[in-house]
Design a protein that fits this description.
The protein has 75 residues and is an alpha+beta fold. It has a single domain, classed as Metal Transport, Frataxin, Chain A (2-Layer Sandwich). Helix content is 31%, strand content 15%. It has 2 helices and 3 strands, in the order H-E-E-E-H. The protein has a 3-stranded antiparallel β-sheet with strand order 1-2-3, with helices on one face. Helix 1 packs parallel to helix 2. The radius of gyration is 12 Å and the shape is globular. Bound molecules: zinc ion. The site of zinc ion (ZN) has 6 residues, from loops. The site of zinc ion has 6 residues, from loops.
């Protein structure tokens, strides 16, 4: 699943799939993935073997907080 190189951690792969579903672009590592938002102003690295177990979900939450993502939250 996905056009990127599959993440070796299931949680990491799941996070990349969520980012992909949000319209973010995923660039393959040499050292880590780089994810880029649809507007092109926001980017973040996603590491392969983070020590923090919540790291991948934090990455997704971070992405959802970016200004270009917030236009859908008008509730
Ligand atoms: Zn953006």
């Amino acid at each position: 699943m996905g056009y990127w190189k599959k993440h070796q951690k299931p949680d990491g792969q799941k996070a990349l799939e969520e980012l992909d579903a949000m319209g973010w672009k995923i660039e393959n590592p040499p050292k880590y993935y780089t994810v880029k938002c649809p507007c092109g102003s926001h980017a973040r690295s996603v590491h392969l073997t983070p020590s923090n177990p919540g790291y991948f979900q934090e990455s997704v939450r971070w992405a959802k907080r970016q200004t270009c993502m917030n236009e859908e939250e008008g509730q």
